[in-house]
Amino acid sequence: MEDTIYMKRAIELAKKGEGFVNPNPMVGAVIVKDGRIIGEGFHQEYGQLHAERNALKNCKEKGNSPKGATIYVTLEPCCHHGKTPPCTEAIIESGISRVVIGTLDVNPLVAGKGAKILTEYGIKVEVGILEKECRNLNRVFNKYVSTKRPYVVMKYAMTADGKIATTTGESKWITGEAARENVHKLRKKLSGIMVGVSTVIADDPMLDCRLPEPAKNPVRIICDTNLRTPIDSNVVQTADKIHTIIATASEDAKRIKEYEKEGCKVLIIPKTNNGIDLNFLMNEIGNLGIDSVLLEGGGTINYSALESRIVDEIHVHVAPKIFGGNSKSPVEGIGIEQIDKAIHLNPISTTWAGEDLIIENEVVY
Fold first, then answer.
1. Catalytic site residue 52?
2. Mean pLDDT (whole number) for 188-195
């Protein structure tokens, strides 16, 4: 029971690094001795100290000795040199006698090696306390470190009858403020945000993060097969301040130079029947260190993304409104002909944001 309580605290701490540690995992650590917490920490920012070292630092600042203590850590301590030295070394040197790990690291550089090293030094190691919760904490990291492709979350807001706009194309705002704030939390959490060029032309969005607390903006990715993004659009005109990528099949050197002059990065992507090759694009942006993408496009790109099987989660925001008619749906395309060919979803969570319902789903291919 005590182990569960302290691991829950470690998970709470880990979440504080959300949006700042990518492409590293979120990790929290709690040091306990004689039934009380004597130090705690979390991985605060990419390139900075890991959770275990921050917890040990906190312990020292409080004048506490970690010798003989137990450390609870949501993810297996690293045992390799990266931006920082191995956390296993720090734990061994500290005199900690027991390590409780939420889940093992899927990173091939660690993957059980960290736990093994600690055991070899006579430290008692236990694995699997709140394992499911600790694993879910780093769904993005687990995919990226295993495949070098970003974790893709599709998000759309719709009415109760499945419409994303009125018959005249009006779409602001379908959901209320609480649901829209949730979208900005996603923009903070994930490394990139992707839309199709039609969204840029229709709405001229900024695609930034507008939370009042300190937050970083996601890298903006515009899927623009034929280079139709207006030069005077918000995303292009602010590309010198917010990293912006235009993914295109066009090789119009003169046009490309115009975007690059404004600060955009242009990626040449092969073309398919539905536009640019989204799987090729995922490989390219994964190579750029972008570990996760929020897809906030319209029905056309949503269909292409699902058909390309690049989507890992779908977050559906449902507003208590009815539009009716033949207005746009969140997923367009040619659709399926038979029910057994449908894309299936595995519900992760259902929450309320004001009067709007948010349903988070894992995509099952």
1. yes
2. 95
